[in-house]
Specification:
The chain is an alpha/beta fold and about 160 residues long. The chain has one domain: Alpha-Beta Complex (Ribosomal Protein L13p, Chain: A). About 40% of the residues lie in helices and about 15% in strands. A 4-stranded parallel sheet has the order 5-2-1-6, covered by helices on one side. It has a two-stranded antiparallel sheet with strand order 3-4. Strand 3 and strand 4 form a beta hairpin. The longest helix is centred in the N-terminal third of the chain and has 17 residues. The protein starts with a helix and ends with a strand.
């Protein structure tokens, strides 16, 4: 009985040693990309940004590790939405008090905080786990054309 379990265990070890599964390792150096959001549709842009943040553009992508790169988005105030969303789309947040639901239109956010539009859209495209919050730290959104990340030498990301 003892020898049979040893043989069975030995054969499983032998089978496992012949497998060619590779495990991707987290890279220390992350690339920096700059994306111009002028005249691009908000949702389509958010999908592409989320894929770069997750690392889906790399051949070493695995869903349980952070292989993504930093993304700098400029001209967030010039992002485009389709249809009547400019006037009809509303964002809701809850203050925590009774009757504290607040609704703000997309056009109001564009005037006050245009960065919120892209950050909120990209956040909705990310997975709902702790890894997504770490990936979202690599998203840098700016309303105008200027950004303080010139020392990182960002490359333009062509979609």
């Amino acid at each position: 009985m003892l020898t049979m379990s040893f043989v069975l265990l030995h054969s499983t070890v032998l089978i496992l040693s012949l497998m060619k599964t590779t495990i991707a390792k987290v890279q220390d150096q992350k690339e920096w990309y700059v994306v111009d959001a002028a005249d691009q549709v908000l949702g389509r842009l958010a999908v592409k940004i989320a894929n770069v943040l997750r690392g889906r553009h790399k051949p070493t992508y695995v869903p349980n590790m952070d292989h993504g790169d930093h993304v700098i988005v400029i001209n967030a105030e010039k992002v485009r939405v389709t249809g009547k969303k400019e006037d009809k789309k509303e964002y809701m947040h809850y203050t925590g008090y009774v009757g504290g639901e607040r609704y703000v239109k997309l056009s109001d956010y564009r005037a006050r905080k245009p960065e919120f539009l892209i950050k909120h859209a990209v956040e909705g495209m990310m997975p709902g786990n702790k890894l997504a919050s770490a990936m979202l730290l690599k998203l840098h959104v700016y309303a105008g054309t200027e950004h303080p990340h010139a020392p990182q030498k960002p490359k333009t990301f062509n979609f």
